[in-house]
Design brief:
The chain has one domain: 3-Layer(aba) Sandwich (Rossmann fold). Helix content is about 35%, strand content about 20%. The chain contains 9 helices and 8 strands. It is globular, with a radius of gyration of 17 Å.
Length: about 280
């Protein structure tokens, strides 16, 4: 852990060295076109990365209540994880305010993104069996949904290629959409097969969750229930609570960011996705 924290500190100091610091992907590729809308993957590669590599990868989904948001939210996380040896990706998906879509389309696009990365792993220099999904808030829902929900697949995709990630990294995730849970009014006609909390199963991937104790959208009790349900099935679910922190506390460059990145790193090290 000392090595991990030191790595994060070096990265953060480099980022803060200039007030003009920006993060830029190495490339953007279209993974899906729907009604003339091109959805892209914003890809950050490790230094010296080649297509012949078999690197672990992570695909992040931005937050915004299924209504708004931008892939650049996770650029800082992508930059850091690429510096540690992963192919790190932030994905577009359709949202209500821009595309007039429902939460269903968010999940469909999330599944399409994971499926496209796995199908093109050889060209991307990625190990198809070490693909993590991550996200914040509604993006955390999308990430968890790709792992746990049946259905919500595009009819024209090759369903023989799995859209399920091998691990989950979730930041104040919206994973309870049942009565009383986040967004229930928008999904009440189909919440039972849409809510990750209500679809945890024995094949759920190892998961780490970060949550502030003052989050008004995702109660601590919800995260604790999710963790308990995972553990009943023998599935790993690490829960990190941050005292007094509100919703969205994980974003760069807020005060908890450094510690969250260090713990994210440690989780990925424990899975063999990053070197110690």
């Amino acid at each position: 852990m000392k090595f991990t924290l030191a790595t994060v500190l070096v990265f953060m100091l480099a980022c803060l060295a200039s007030a003009e610091e920006t993060f830029s992907p190495d490339k953007k590729v279209v993974f899906k076109t729907v009604d003339a809308v091109e959805l892209k993957l914003h890809i950050f590669n490790p230094e010296g990365h080649q297509a012949t590599d078999e690197r672990p990868a992570v695909v992040f989904f931005f937050g915004g209540g299924w209504s708004r948001g931008s892939a650049d939210q996770f650029y800082p996380y992508c930059e850091y994880l690429a510096s540690r040896g992963m192919v790190a990706i932030s994905a577009d998906y359709r949202v209500k305010r821009v595309h007039g879509t429902s939460p269903k389309e968010c999940v469909k696009d999330g599944k399409s993104a994971i499926r496209w990365v796995r199908a093109n792993a050889q060209e991307l220099g990625i190990d198809p069996n070490r693909i993590a999904a991550g996200g914040g808030s509604a993006g955390g829902h999308v990430a968890a949904a790709t792992a746990l929900l049946s259905g919500y697949d595009e009819a024209d995709e090759n369903l023989d290629v799995s859209s399920r990630p091998n691990a989950l990294v979730l930041y104040n995730p919206v994973f309870d959409n049942g009565p009383g849970g986040y967004g229930h009014g928008r999904v009440k006609g189909y919440w039972e097969d849409f809510s990750p909390m209500h679809n945890i199963n024995a094949s759920a991937p190892p998961t780490t969750v970060f949550l502030g104790t003052k989050d008004r959208l995702v109660p601590v009790a919800t995260a604790e229930e999710y963790k308990a349900k995972m553990e009943v099935l023998g599935r790993r679910c690490d829960l990190h609570l941050y005292e007094g922190q509100p919703h969205g506390f994980f974003n760069y460059p807020r005060e908890s960011y450094e510690d969250i990145v260090a713990k994210t790193d440690a989780f990925l090290v424990s899975l063999g996705y990053l070197p110690e």
